[in-house]
Amino acid sequence: MAYETRFAAVVLGPGKPGQLRVTLRRGQEQFVVDVAAELLYPSLRMPNSSFVAVVAGREILRVEPAGRAWLNIQDQIRAVLNRDWDPIGVVGDGIDDEYDMYIGQIQSSLTKVSSEQEIAEYLLWVETERMGLTGTPITQRLQVARNLKKLHLPSLESPS
User: Fold this and answer.
1) pLDDT per position as a tens digit, 133-158
2) Which helix (H) or strand (E) holds 75?
3) Is 139 helix (H, G, I), strand (E, B) or coil?
4) Structural domain boundaries of the chain?
5) 4-65: which CATH architecture?
């Protein structure tokens, strides 16, 4: 099952009929796709236009209005999960996006000012129900929650 992630995107130029050729980049990962022109705002259809794309697999689902903020949020939360949590131990193997599917829920919890305990319980649910693991120690999960709550995440509110 593919999950949504955000990529910095740049229009390269025309693609197949009715489509535009777009390069997508996140960290070291980069690829080129053809995108239906109607997915992009008219102002983004020119070569070298940049935006943030919400992607599932290699398909652009939509353009993210608060995209730059989301890239920042994604990077900050990913760093904490990879450094302090990594329950399956894959980050050291060069896999840095293994836990990206949980970033949205974590960001939502942080926005709702969830307690460290609530965040730690969510991480336990992920470990046991989603990953089939026995769960990391509560002290580790609470430390991860503390570190997540210390992040200075940008607001996703649109300026009025």
Assistant:
1) 999 999 999 999 999 999 999 887 65
2) helix 67-80
3) helix
4) 4-65, 68-149
5) Beta Barrel (2.40)
